[in-house]
Amino acid sequence: MTGPSRAAAAPPAGEVIVDWYATAARDLPWRTPGVDPWAVLVSEVMLQQTPVARVEPVWRSWMARWPAPADLAAAPPAEVIRAWGKLGYPRRALRLREAAAAIAERHGGVVPDDVAALEALPGIGAYTARAVACFGYGQRQPVVDTNVRRVVARLVHGRAEAGNARATDLADIAALAPEDDARAVRFSVAVMELGALVCIAGTPRCAACPVRDRCAWRLAGYPAHDGPRRRVQQFAGTDRQVRGRLLDVLRAADAPVTAAALATTWDDAVQRSRCLDSLLTDGLVEQTADGLFRLPTGDVDQVT
DNA sequence: GAGGCGTGGCT
DNA sequence: TAGCCAAGCCT
């Protein structure tokens, strides 16, 4: 059928999402055109499980202090842990420093541009490797994070929530990407942004969604999630809370502290000891020759 | 492959 | 209020 009553075919969802991004994207410093891939890598590691608002100020000071991988690799671990501040999961800070050392030593100080080499770096997994290749090097890459999996689950599969990561995730998102390479690169960040700002986990803002007219979940009447509830992580009383308190004391201390000082953080001595041991094992804490505790100095004559 | 691993804002 | 949730990685 032809004629003016027939609307032109709607543009593909991927194209619509790229155009939406041009008008709706947040202005984030690591998205500055021409930004150094190292700066992108640092941002991506900081953003693992951590909100943008908390990352931004830390990222700024971090990049000013350690603008290149070799700078970070040369820094004492204690300073790196302190600079990480309260971003959480501080093992990420140590792994980022280790990744910086690997880049400096094995890659001539240049962040590798291929996914396999990136994934071989400490703390860099499937998501972060592709994010660096795509956002840092402008490569056409499918980039799948929790936002992308949620958008695909709703828009394509008509499900309220994404299940666990699947082998088909990369193909799912690649199928939506625009043909033009430059637009496909923007699409990768645009889908994440859509998931972060509009197609959010709690109450999705469908009225603001550029592809609501073709969303399978919306067209199916918003069927509820039918799988098992994702169990929410406990925090109060866990080792994670205790480790956090121990590290909080050590970050604030300007000299090695006694075991007695650490004992004020948590009453249960068994749990406290277990957590201190795990921090020593992780390399987040070291013990001095006289039995005191501090953040790791990186000195070669340290006693552990 | 399920569970461990921080922290704090939001509803 | 008390979960829920946030650009994952590693074992």
Description:
By secondary structure, this protein is an all-alpha fold. It has two domains: 11-225, Endonuclease III, domain 1 (Orthogonal Bundle); 239-294, Arc Repressor Mutant, subunit A, CATH 1.10.10. Helices cover 50% and strands 1% of the residues. It is built from 15 helices and two strands. It has a two-stranded antiparallel ribbon with strand order 1-2. Strand 1 (286-287) and strand 2 (293-294) form a beta hairpin. Helix 2 crosses helix 3 (52-65). It is globular. The relative contact order is 0.11. The model has no long low-confidence stretch (mean pLDDT 94). The chain binds a DNA duplex (11 and 11 nucleotides) through residues 43-55, 86-92, 95, 122-128, 131, 143, 145-148, 164, 189, 192, 195-196, 200-203, 231-233, 235, 238-241, 243-244, 247, 282.
Brief summary:
The chain has helices at 13-24, 37-46, 52-65, 69-73, 77-84, 91-106, 115-119, 126-136, 146-155, 169-174, 181-197, 216-219, 239-252, 259-263, 269-282, and strands at 286-287, 293-294. By secondary structure, it is mainly α. It folds into 2 domains: 11-225, Endonuclease III, domain 1 (Orthogonal Bundle), CATH 1.10.340; 239-294, Orthogonal Bundle (Arc Repressor Mutant, subunit A).
